Each structure stands twice: as C-alpha cells, then as structure tokens.
Amino acid sequence: MSGRPELTGKQKEKLIQFRENLKDVLGPKHDDYYLTRFLRARNFDLAKSEEMLRNCLIWREKMKIDTIQQDFKLPEVADKYWAGGVLDGYDKDDCPVWLVPIGNFDPKGLLHSMKHGDLIKVNLLVLEYQYEQFAIRTKEIGKQIGQLTLIVDLENLGLQHLWKPGIELFTKMLTIMEQHYPETLKSILVVRAPAIFPIAYQLCKPFLQEYTRKKIQVLGSNWRDVLRQHVDKDILPEYWGGTKKDPDGNPKCPSLIKQGGEVPKSYYKTEFDLTQKGMITKDISRAGALELKYEVHKPASVLRYTFKTYDNDIGFGVTLNDVTSKKPIVVMENKRHNSHMVPEDGELILEKPGTYTVKFDNSYSWTKGKAVSYLLEVLEPTDEEPNFVEQTAELDLNK
User: How far apart are CA 127 and CA 297, in angstroms?
Assistant: First the structure.
C-alpha cells in the first residue's frame, strides 16, 4: 500500500467505528484507504480525525473543489512560469514521482501577475489531478496506490525566496495539503540544499505535521545515487541523475517538468500591496534619523525588511558595530529610496554575530519630516523543533 504499514487489529476496529461515525456524510468514493488518511493524520484519535474529515468535506463543497479542474482556467503566466511536474513513470513502489525545481520559482513575479487565490488554485489543480492518477494507477496494477514521491531541487534558492508574502503563500499551500490531502507524500527528497536552506525550512516547519517532517530527507553530495535508489534511471531526467532526455535532447525534460523562471514584468497586473500586518509607523523629524539596533547571535542570519514612506524619499542602510575598532562596518550602504512611490522590501544576509544598526535616514532633508512604516525581522538558524501550527481560518480563493 504505497509503503504504508498495514493496519493493526485495533486500528481496523477504529476504522470501522470511524466509518460508522461519519455515515451521514460519506459517499461511494470515500473508501477505507481515504478514511485511513485522516485517521493516520490524527494518530487514530477518532474525535480529532472526525473533526478533520468533516471540516475537509465542508471545505471541498464550499470551495467547489470537485469541479475545479473544469471550472478553473490556468492563467498563461502560471502555465509558462510554474515550476514542477510529474515524471513519465513511477518509483520502485509504483508510486508517481513529482519533481519540483523550487529554486526556479519566482514568488514575487507570480504574486504580481496573478490573484493570490488563483495561485492557490493552481496548486489545488495539481493535487486533484494527482488523486485522479492514483485511482487510475490503482486500477491498472490492482494494488492500492495513494501516495507520491516528491523530489525538491533547491538549486538557485536564494534570498528572494525568503520574501515574506511568498513564504506566506507557500505555508498556506502546505496547510491546505496537511488539512485536506493528508498522507499524500510517501517521501520528500531534497537535493542541492544551499546554506540558506535551514532558515527557509525553519519558516515552513511549523506548518508541517510531525509525520510529514519525518519523511523529509536532505540528501548530500551523492544525491544522484540516492535518487536512483528510489527511481529507475530511465525515468529520471539526466539533469537529476538519470538517463531520460526530451526528444530534442534537453536533459531537464521541460516537456514534463515546468522549469519556472523569472516572470517578465509584462505580465504584472498591478503593484502588489506590500503593506503587512505588524508594520510600525514612526515620525522622523527634519534632518533627523531613526536608528534601530538588533542583537544577532548566530552567523548566516537574515534581516528581512519592508518599509514605505508617505511623503518623499528616505535613506536606508545597515551597519555592524565593530567591537575592536569601535567603528561601524557598512553591511548595506545608506541610500535614498523613493519608498513613497514604491514600497521597498528585501532580505540581507548577516554573516557575523553582533549588534546591527538599521538606520532610516532623513538627515539630508532640512525642511521636511517623514513618516515611515516598517517591518523588520531577524531570522536566525535554529535546531529547535517548533510546534505544529493548525491554521483553521477559512481561505478565500477569490482574493
């Protein structure tokens, strides 16, 4: 059963009781395998599993998920610049294999070019399509198939992927999968993880159940050999350690795997609203400045910033206080930004521990004070295991 252990006698008894408890809402397609997904997701706690499944069925009806493949037209920008796809074959347990070059995903470009809800719908299209393929494969080989192997390639993952609206979009996708498509992933194989990966993973881990986190394997330099242990080389694209190529010889097989890439600004519809919850507003006097100090305890931390002004530009820069020379070391040069026209946002690697000063500088303006709204966050690598965050708020797919 796709690598899932068989149910024990006690678990089978709970499955029978679970079906009885839910008989008022279940239909023909809700077979024992489907019900077991939700039982496993809640460690066979009948009350919690029932609540989870009932909420899922209500969500599916409200969001019209059963007809989303017919009702939702994939936007051109998503068709061209989404990243990922399914291989033309199966892993060694007969499960489908999805390969996602997530480092080529352009969250800022897509969020500027599509409605937030439409981006979520693209992900739902992928999931609904895959569940149809599970049923087809199960019928073909006479063995229950209901999980997939996910290969995540982090080549090109960079600071741009820590952009807060992009992270929030990704965590919403994770939450939907965990709450409404539980036990879909058999294994998650991560390759080419860069130095920034621990921070990106830290931001996403709270939205993953423990049973999902245990399936994640971050592979080392022999990752191609490990992938071939899971997937036959004639199915795996050459770029990822196999022998398969597209008919034109392309080793990345873009006919199967959408390659993503930077979204051209010609697709941008409107300026994305960077105003975020928790932004602080301060007044800066004429010829004045606002300095904010942050203690950073670990190397390779990241400063994530967003700010906007309401009248005219403002200077912005970052320095590190050098305890030896007592002089500040410039980390980001102080430059003037037209943040009253376009909000500024970005990420900055803080390579060394120490005291950092973030400065909003209005010293050049002798006649006008400024008001600045900002959100500054220091993200430090951590080995701590955070608690799972259960997100119960209803998601509006029309936004």
Answer: 40
Q: Which two tokens stand for residue 113?
A: 């070019």
Q: CA 239, CA 252: separation in Å to the nearest integer? A: 5
Read off the DSSP letter of residue 328: E
CB of 18 within 8 A of CB of 46? yes
Supply the DSSP symbol for 87: E
pLDDT given at position 281: 94
Let me know: does 160 contact 347? Beta carbons within 8 Å. Answer: yes
* Cβ–Cβ under 8 Å, residues 390 and 210: no
What does the buried/exposed string (b/e) look like for 27-44 if buried means 16 or more CB atoms within 10 Å of the residue's CB?
A: eeeeeebebbbbbbbbeb
State both tokens at 381: 């690598």
Q: What region does 16 belong to: left with phi over 0, alpha with psi -120 to 50, or beta?
A: alpha
Q: What are phi and psi of 191, to 5 degrees?
A: -125, 155
pLDDT at 395: 42
Amino acid 83: pLDDT: 96
What is the structure's pLDDT at 68?
A: 94
Residue pair 148/187 in contact (Cβ under 8 Å)? The answer is no
**Contact (CB, 8 A) for 16 and 47:** no
Beta bridge partners of 337: 314
Rounded CA gap, 243 and 234, in Å?
Answer: 5
pLDDT at 270: 61
**Which of 26, 5, 15, 31 has the alpha carbon at shortest distance from 139?**
31
Strands 185-191 and 148-153: parallel
Element (H, E) at 214: none
Residue type, 340: H
**Percentage of the chain surpassing pLDDT 70?**
92
DSSP, residue by residue, 114-170: S-HHHHHHHHHHHHHHHHHHHHHHHHHHTS----EEEEEE-TT--GGGG-HHHHHHH
Least trusted range by pLDDT, from 22-31, 87-96, 113-122: 113-122
Looking at residue 86, its amino acid is V
**What is the pTM assigned to this prediction?**
0.80
Rounded Cα gap, residues 245 and 250, in angstroms: 5
Tell me: the pLDDT tens digits for 67-91?
Answer: 999 999 999 999 999 999 999 999 9
